[in-house]
Every structure is written in structure tokens, then in C-alpha cells.
Design goal:
Number of domains of chain B: 1
Helix content of chain A: 25-40%
Structural class of chain B: mainly alpha
Number of strands of chain A: 12
CATH architecture of the largest domain in chain A: Sandwich
Shape of chain A: elongated
Radius of gyration of chain B: 25 Å
Strand order of the largest sheet of chain A: 8-5-1-2-3-12-11
CATH architecture of chain B: Up-down Bundle
Oligomer: heterodimer
CATH superfamily of the largest domain in chain A: Cupredoxins -  blue copper proteins
Shape of chain B: globular
CATH class of chain B: Mainly Alpha
Number of strands of chain B: 2
CATH superfamily of chain B: Cytochrome c oxidase-like, subunit I domain
Radius of gyration of chain A: 26 Å
Largest interface: A-B, 125 and 119 residues
CATH topology of chain B: Cytochrome C Oxidase, Chain A
Distance between the termini of chain B: 74 Å
Helix content of chain B: 55-70%
Order of helices and strands of chain B: HHHHHHHHHHHHHHHHEHHEH
Chain lengths: 309, 670
């Protein structure tokens, strides 16, 4: 991750990107993550975002122009504008000013209705390939990914085959988080004791940035993961090597993961306990313990070594 | 003896809070010494602290709001600079401090900045506009204000004793439960918000009762100025929504203090229920803030166009429509919890329907200018800035109300930009427009127009430079509340945003200069007539500042725009109405019960935060005794003699006669 590079090259990159960023002010919208999706869900979300913006701009821009024209035309210093000191009602104008927003919102309402149903995160994607099953657990402050059918688990990175739907079942073993890969689309909450369903698909082989989009405490800023979308063959190879790893994920190892920690390096485990995810959701394994007990004695002032200091 | 409180609660090892604390304490001490040396205490005690005059209380509310606005702005400066310097670097604020800052920023800006300002305007204006002498419960009003001040005090005490919450301005469990946040920060939040929430509820009840029961003769509902309608809608929402807040925070308090399980992770607690409940208050809350601002804009557009408001009844209907629908939209704050398509559809559509009411209002303001003589005084500049800013904020708001679009932008910097777009563009611009507009009414002289225009342009420009980059960052997948950033490509946008804050700082400075210059030149800016803007509603019928009894004789209203009608008649007949027979007036006596109750409420809150149980009991009993003693009072009104009333009113009449003569000479009126 970029945080691991030496600071000199980072600052050089910042300056370079400042220059480019300002130059490409007008063009940059094309490269913005959520407007530049790599899968069908993100494409659907982004299309709705853009369509709705265009529909509303068609109303909003003339309205703003009308407001400024009206103020300018009827400025007190303009002798040519007639003064109608008692004019305060017109049934026809009233009808129009109620109709414009009502019609716009009816249109947007249709968009909401269709979009909400078509892009419901719980809805499976249509595909000739069966989806890859991935269980996701948000921990303080890292992400655990379990591939139940393949018997492996990873931390802070998830590898998926390009062009195949992925079915994420998401829960939390501590506080709320939101599972979000901006370029794949649709985020959803990770909530303790509950499972959220999310169906995503990547159509390009790429490395993507995944984040938590719901504040979850001191280690929140680093609660990121990498999504590697790779071709089928590469995915098979990766899976075989992952299954061959001798690091087991059992309740002891999981118990260590439950403790608060930050900027955990990506790791791959062999899933030693196939019932782990259910045990987490049903809380037969208690959720993460939060900050360590000794820090509670600071007379109400919590201290942590969190962050980068 | 002192519960959890110990010396380690003082942040001796952390330079930023320590230096800030010392500076704040020094400034406070300097003010107290100045007041003591100049012997201002008796005056302050008699005329302000124990005052039950709605105008004085309104002004104190606004003062509190302005001070807290500056405190919240200081937090904002730290947040924007931290994000600008913490790109692939730790920055200067560690997470445990940064997280307190964004939590305090949100809490203070909404509950202790915007809320007191809005309540202050309602307090000051509603009785004047309705043609009555005070609110329904004057002493209760004082209690409400001082309880709000008490909450604000507790939030600021957390700066130097202990810490503030680190959970975000709405403390979502399970993060806010003791297992994940054991410190006193969330407890500070809970007690500060509870105490000020009771104060707000009191004011809400007061204003609703005043509007429903205390209008002057002839002031039927459909003759009330639109500001009174928006105040009514806003206070109905307060009465409906604040009990939800109180109950929700009480449940979280029980979780934290006695180990119950309303919202805990385990033992059957349901954290999502907190999120539902808190937004069932939280969404109406934003309309509580913005509706009175809409009322202010309505008054400004009409006055500075020299015309009645276009589509008055439409405006009233749109206000009440927003009031009702705003209770039905809370779920749009968490479409991403996975409630399912049907639920998301319902709340998506109900949220965007609010835009119908707002859209109608915007068109009505535009058509108010049609056929008018628009004067671009400072309040009008803020209002035009509002139209532009708020329309864009409304657009991005409807985008966030579309569930699939929200799935991309929820909790992102796009959201941050959106709600600042509507809250700054709507509420803050509205409050500043209102301050310029009614300042002469409250203090007897206008604010300096040149500095006012400078402040507007700096704020308007600064706003857009600060928040436009945040829209872009949000669309690039930047979530909010990041203490450091490891995507160097975001740097230029964050720098631009930080530069925008710099422009906003200049705007604040311009406003301070405006106030200083105006006070210095107050004789030149003096408003002798009581009607400096050619106003249309009853508050302009009084002198500036109005006498404590507002009206010597209760007005009799014969149409919409009560004062405009009186003014027209006077001009047509070339004389004022004949001098009435003055009668003695009964006015409520001052009472220290407000500050007394609030003092002990503060002590109670502080004791609860630090687990000092004996002190909590003592403070609670003392606060209760205050109520009992007040309830058994013998004298609650005093009489203003007819002579005194006549003396004050004759002064007003002679100023009016001079104004009338000048107006008929110049032929100002149609």
C-alpha cells in the first residue's frame, strides 16, 4: 500500500499530481472512481447517478438563470421595469410552479422505483457462471474474507475471478462498518449479529481499492483492503497456492484477529474451522473486546497509540 | 469522593487542547474581570441574565449561537488543514484527538450553533410580528435558554477536563457503548445534549403556544407573516421530534451507566434500532433549522422587492407539507443497511417529494421579485446567494435520495459537501441575512453595509472553493472522517479546499470588523424611525429597539402585511391614527430561576459524567427546589403606569410623524 513507500517519493508524487490535477480540472470527472466502474453493479449505480443529475440540471439551470434575470430586470435602478406593488398572485403561475417540481419528482420517483429494485444489493446477478461465495467479517480494524467452499481465508485482501459474480455475505465482529469497493459499486453495512448480502462483479482484471465507509474508531482510516480481480486461470492458481498454505485459521488465530490492531498486512490462511462465520454471526464467539482493559484507568481520557505515531 | 475525576483528566501531555484551554480560560477571565471592574454586574443581572423579555432572550440565544459558530469553525479549520497535511503522513492531530474534533464540530454546529440562532430569531420575532407583548410563558422561556447554554458549557468543559466523544456527532452504538468507548467523551455528549434538548423542547412548546393562543386582534392564521408560519412548523417539529431524541439518548445512557442492553452488540441489543431512532429525530431536526431560515428569506425577498410575497397561501401550504413529510424520510440516512428494495423505494420517493415543497418556495421567491423594485442591500445579497447555493444543494440532495446513487456516495465527501451546501447555504446564509435585516430593530442602528457586502462575497466564494472539491473527492471514493489519506491523487483537491477555508476565515474577520465599525459609527447608522428598510410586518411598527412591552396599545390587524396596511392608511390620510387612550400594562417580573436551574443542571450533568453520585443528587434536589420556590411566588407581574406608556409611545409617534412628512414629500409610496 502507498503508506509503506518512502516519504520522499510520496511528496514528489503529490506535487506531480497537484500539477496534473489542476491542469485536468475539466477532464478529471472521467477518471473519478465511482463514475468509472469496472462491473455491472457500479455501472448501473453510476448510470442512475448521471441520468438523475442530467434530468435535474435541465430544471435547475433555467431556474437559477431565471432567478438572476428576475433580480436584475427588476432592480430598483431600472426605470424601464414596471412596478406592480400589489401583484402577488397568479393562478396560472402557481399551477406551473407546483407542476414543475411535481413532474420532475414523478420522473425521479420512477427512477428510484426501478433502480431500487434492479440494483438491490441482495439481488443475485444474472450470469452463466455460478457465483463465488465470499464471507466478509469486519474486525477492529481489518477485514477478514472467508471462502467457505474453497476452505481458505484472507485478511485485508480479496481475490476474485474476472467476469464471475461474487456473492459477499457480510457481518461484523465489532462495531458497524460499511463494505465498499468504489469501482465495483454498491456499498453495504457490516453489522454485528446480522448478515448483509451483496452481489458484485468485476469485468476487468484490475487491482481495486476497498474501504470501510462507516467510521469505526481510531484505526478507521487504515481499514482498507485490496481487491484483486484476476483471470480465471490465475484465480485457480492462486486458490491452489492458498489452499496449500500451512497457516490455519482456527478459533485461536481468530481470537488474535479479534483484538484491536491497525494496518495489518494482507495474509492468507487455510480455513480450519468451516463453521467460523456462523459462529461469528450467532455470536457464539463473543464479538471483539474493544480497547484493552488497562486503558480504562485514565480518568476518562482514553489514550491509544493509534494512527501513525 | 470525586468519582472518576482526577488530575489525569487535564490534558497536560497534549499541547493542542492544553494551549486552547489556557487561551479560552484567559479570555473568559479577562471578560469576567472587565465586567467586574466596570461594575457591569448589576446591569447584566437585572437587564439580561434574569430578564424574561423575549427580545433579550432572543438576543442572548443569538449571541450564544454566534460564539459556538466560531468554536465549531475552529474545529473545521483543524479538520481541513489536518486532511491537507496528512497525505501519506500522520498530520498534526492523532486519531484520538481528530476524532473528537469532527464529533465536536458536528454536535456544536447543529445543536449549539445553528439551533440557538434559529431559536433566537423565533424568540425575538414571533411576538413582535404577532403584535403581542411577550411569549406565552416568559419565565419558562428564560429556563429554556439557560438550559441550552448549560449544554453548550458542558461541551466546552470537555475540552479541558477529560475528553469529548470520538464517535461522530451521532454516537452510533456499538461504537458508543462502554465496551468500545469506555471514556467520558460519550457521557459528555449525552448529558450536554440531554440538558440542552430539554431547553429546546421548552422553547418549542412556548412558541407553539404563543402562535396558537396569543395573536393580536385581527391576526388570523392566514394573516400571519410567513416567518411565523415557518416558526410554527419548526416548533411543531421540535415538540414531535425532541422527545424521540431524549428517549433514545436515555436508552444509550442506561446501556452505559447500568449495563442494560438496548443497543449493545450482545444479549439481545439491537444497534440498528438506535440508528433508526436517532434519525427519526435527526431528519426533522434539519427542517427545524431550515424552515425558519425559509421564513427569513420570505420576509427579505418581499421587503427588498417592495411587494407582498408571491403566492402566500402556496408558501404556507408548502411549509406545512414539508413539516409533515419531513417526519417520514429518516431512513434515507441508511439506505445502505440493506433494508430491501421496497423499503428503500418508499423512503427514496418520500425524501425527494420534499423537494416539491422546496421547489415551490424557490419559484415563489423568484416571482416575488417580478414587478418589484429590488434593492440589493446586504440581506438581499445573502438571499440571492442562498437561492443559488440551495438549489445546487437540493440537486445533490435528491441524488442522495436515490438509493442506487446513495450506494456510491453514502458517507462520502460528496455527502459532506451536500449537507454543508444546504445547511450553510440555507440556514447560515438565512441567519446572516436575518442579522443584517433585524439588527437595527434589536439595537437601534444598522450594520455597516460595505463590510457586510465584503463579508457576503468572501463567505460565498469561500464556501464554493471549500466544498466543490469535496464533491469531486466523494465521487472518487473518498469517505468522510479520515484522519489521514493515502491516495496522493487527492492532494490538489484537499489543498484547494483548505484554501477555501482560508477565504472563509477572511469572511469571518470581515464580519467582526463590520460589527466593530458599526458600533463605532452607530450615530451615523442610527435608525430613528423604527422602520429602516420600508418593512411590511408589525415589528417595524415599533421603535428601534422596541420598548420592553413592545406595543403601547395592542394593534388591530385588518389584512395581510399588517404594518404595510397601517403605513398606507397613514400616507393616504396624511396623518397617523389618532392618539389612543393609554392604559397601564401588566408585565412579568424578572426571575433568576432560569440561570439557577441551569447552574444546577450543569453541576448535575458534570457530576453524572464523572460518576460523582452525591453531587448529582445534591444538584438535582437543588434544581428541583428552584422550581418549587418559583411555583410558590406571590408577585409575578408588575404594572407599567399609563403615563410611562404614553411617554414612550409619544416618542415613537413623533418619529413616525417626521417619517410620514418625509415620505409624502418624496412620494416614496405608490
Amino acid at each position: 500500500m502507498s503508506g509503506l513507500e518512502n516519504p520522499k517519493s510520496a511528496s514528489a508524487r503529490i506535487w506531480r499530481s497537484t500539477a496534473f490535477g489542476l491542469l485536468s480540472f475539466g477532464l478529471s470527472s472521467c477518471s473519478l472512481a465511482v463514475l468509472n466502474p469496472v462491473g455491472p453493479v457500479g455501472a448501473g449505480d453510476a448510470a442512475i447517478l448521471i441520468n438523475a443529475t442530467v434530468i435535474m440540471l435541465a430544471i435547475v439551470v433555467p431556474t437559477i438563470l431565471l432567478a438572476f434575470w428576475m433580480a436584475w430586470r427588476y432592480r430598483a435602478s431600472n426605470p424601464r421595469a414596471e412596478y406592480l406593488p400589489y401583484w402577488s398572485y397568479s393562478g396560472r403561475i402557481e399551477a406551473v410552479v407546483w407542476s414543475i417540481p411535481i413532474l420532475t419528482i414523478m420522473f425521479i420517483g420512477g427512477l428510484i422505483w426501478i433502480g431500487s429494485h434492479r440494483l438491490d444489493p441482495f439481488r443475485p446477478l444474472s450470469s452463466s457462471k455460478p457465483p463465488v461465495e465470499v464471507q466478509v467479517v469486519s474486525l477492529d480494524w481489518k477485514w477478514l474474507f472467508i471462502y467457505p467452499k474453497n476452505g481458505i481465508a484472507t485478511v485485508n485482501q480479496v481475490v476474485i475471478p474476472t467476469g464471475t459474480p461474487v456473492h459477499f455475505s457480510i457481518t461484523s465482529a465489532s462495531v458497524f462498518n460499511a463494505f465498499f469497493v468504489p469501482r465495483l459499486g454498491s456499498m453495504i453495512y457490516a453489522m454485528p449479529g446480522m448478515i448483509s448480502q451483496l452481489h458484485l462483479q468485476s469485468d476487468e482484471s484490475a487491482r481495486l481499492r476497498g474501504i470501510s465507509a462507516q467510521f469505526s474508531g481510531d484505526g478507521f482510516s487504515d481499514m482498507q483492503f485490496e481487491v484483486k480481480s484476476v483471470p480465471d486461470a490465475e484465480f485457480e492458481t492462486w486458490m491452489k497456492s492458498a489452499q496449500a498454505t500451512d497457516l490455519p485459521l482456527d478459533r485461536d488465530v481468530y481470537g488474535k484477529l479479534l483484538q484491536q490492531s491497525e494496518r495489518v498486512q494482507p495474509a492468507t490462511y487455510r480455513l480450519a474451522d468451516p463453521e467460523l462465520f456462523n459462529a461469528i454471526v450467532q455470536q457464539t464467539i463473543p464479538p471483539g473486546p474493544g480497547p484493552e482493559a488497562e486503558s480504562r484507568q485514565h480518568a476518562g481520557r482514553e489514550t491509544s497509540t493509534g494512527g501513525k505515531d | 469522593m470525586l468519582g472518576k475525576l482526577g488530575l489525569s483528566a487535564i490534558p497536560l501531555s497534549q499541547p493542542i487542547p492544553l494551549i486552547t484551554s489556557i487561551a479560552v480560560i484567559l479570555i473568559a477571565a479577562a471578560v469576567l474581570i472587565l465586567v467586574t471592574v466596570r461594575r457591569w454586574w448589576p446591569y447584566l443581572w437585572r437587564e439580561w441574565i434574569t430578564s424574561v423579555d423575549h427580545k433579550r432572550i432572543g438576543i442572548m440565544y443569538c449571541l450564544l449561537g454566534v460564539v459556538m459558530l466560531i468554536r465549531g469553525f475552529a474545529d473545521a479549520i483543524m479538520m481541513r488543514t489536518q486532511q491537507a497535511v496528512a497525505i501519506d503522513a500522520p498530520g498534526y492531530l492523532p486519531p484520538e484527538h481528530y476524532n473528537q474534533i469532527f464529533t465536536a464540530h458536528g454536535t456544536i454546529m447543529i445543536l449549539f450553533g445553528a439551533m440557538p440562532l434559529v431559536l433566537g430569531f423565533m424568540n425575538f420575532l414571533v411576538p413582535l410580528q404577532l403584535g403581542v407583548r411577550d411569549v406565552a410563558f416568559p419565565t419558562f422561556n428564560s429556563v429554556g435558554f439557560w438550559l441550552t447554554a448549560s449544554g453548550a458549557l458542558l461541551v466546552n468543559v470537555s475540552l479541558f477536563i477529560g475528553e469529548f466523544a470520538r464517535t461522530g456527532w451521532l454516537p452510533y452504538p456499538p461504537l458508543s457503548e462502554t465496551s468500545y468507548t469506555p471514556g467520558v467523551g460519550v457521557d459528555y455528549y449525552l448529558w450536554a445534549v440531554q440538558i440542552s434538548g430539554i431547553g429546546t423542547l421548552i422553547t418549542g412548546i412556548n412558541i407553539v403556544t404563543t402562535i396558537l393562543k396569543m395573536r393580536c386582534r385581527g391576526m388570523s392564521y392566514l394573516r400571519m407573516p410567513v416567518f411565523c408560519w415557518t416558526a410554527l412548523a419548526s416548533c411543531l417539529l421540535i415538540v414531535a421530534a425532541f422527545p424521540i431524541l431524549t428517549a433514545t439518548l436515555a436508552m444509550l445512557t442506561l446501556d452505559r451507566y447500568v449495563g442494560w442492553h438496548y443497543f449493545t452488540n450482545t444479549a439481545g441489543g439491537n444497534p440498528m434500532m438506535f440508528v433508526n431512532l436517532i434519525w427519526a429525530w435527526g431528519h426533522p431536526e434539519v427542517y427545524i433549522l431550515v424552515l425558519p431560515a425559509f421564513g427569513i428569506f420570505s420576509e427579505v425577498f418581499s421587503t427588498f422587492s417592495g411587494k407582498p410575497l408571491f403566492g402566500y397561501r402556496s408558501m404556507v401550504a408548502a411549509t406545512m407539507f414539508i413539516c409533515i413529510v419531513s417526519m417520514l424520510v429518516w431512513l434515507h440516512h441508511f439506505f445502505t443497511m440493506g433494508a430491501g428494495a421496497a423499503v428503500n423505494t418508499f423512503f427514496g420517493i418520500s425524501s425527494s417529494i420534499i423537494a416539491v415543497g422546496t421547489g415551490v418556495k424557490i419559484y415563489n421567491w423568484i416571482f416575488t421579485m417580478y414587478g418589484g423594485r429590488v434593492r440589493f442591500e446586504v440581506p438581499m445579497l445573502w438571499s440571492m446567494g442562498f437561492i443559488f447555493t440551495f438549489i445546487i444543494g437540493g440537486l445533490t440532495g435528491v441524488l442522495l435520495a436515490i438509493p442506487p446513487a446513495d450506494f456510491l456516495t453514502h458517507n462520502s465527501m460528496f455527502l459532506v459537501a451536500h449537507f454543508h451546501n444546504v445547511i450553510i447555504g440555507g440556514v447560515v446564509f438565512g441567519v446572516f441575512a436575518g442579522m443584517e435585516f433585524w439588527f437595527p430593530k434589536a439595537f437601534g442602528f444598522r450594520l455597516h453595509a460595505g463590510w457586510g457586502k465584503a463579508a457576503f462575497w468572501l463567505a460565498f466564494l469561500g464556501f464554493w472553493v471549500t466544498f466543490t472539491p469535496l464533491y469531486v473527492l466523494g465521487l472518487d471514493g473518498m469517505t468522510r472522517r479520515l484522519q489521514h489519506i493515502d491516495v496522493p491523487e487527492w492532494a490538489p483537491w484537499l489543498y484547494v479546499s483548505a484554501a477555501g477555508v482560508g477565504i472563509l476565515v477572511l469572511g469571518v474577520i470581515a464580519q467582526v470588523i463590520q460589527l466593530v465599525v458599526s458600533i463605532r459609527e452607530r450615530e451615523k447608522l442610527r435608525d430613528i424611525t423604527g422602520d429602516p428598510w420600508d418593512g411590511r410586518s408589525l415589528e417595524w411598527a415599533t421603535p428601534s429597539p422596541p420598548p420592553f412591552f413592545n406595543f403601547a396599545v395592542m394593534p388591530n390587524v385588518e389584512g395581510e402585511e399588517a404594518y404595510w396596511g397601517i403605513k398606507l392608511r397613514a400616507v393616504e390620510s396624511q396623518q397617523l391614527s389618532p392618539e389612543p387612550d393609554y392604559e397601564p400594562i401588566e408585565m412579568p417580573v424578572n426571575s433568576p430561576v432560569g440561570i439557577y436551574t441551569a447552574f444546577f443542571a450543569t453541576v448535575f450533568g458534570f457530576a453524572m459524567i464523572w460518576y460523582i453520585w452525591w453531587l448529582a443528587i445534591v444538584a438535582l434536589v437543588a434544581a428541583f427546589i428552584g422550581f418549587v420556590v418559583f411555583a410558590w411566588r406571590d408577585v409575578h407581574e408588575f404594572e407599567v403606569s399609563a403615563d410611562e406608556v404614553a411617554r414612550v409611545d409619544r416618542g415613537r409617534r413623533s418619529a413616525r410623524e417626521a417619517m410620514l412628512a418625509r415620505m409624502s414629500e418624496q412620494g416614496v409610496l405608490p
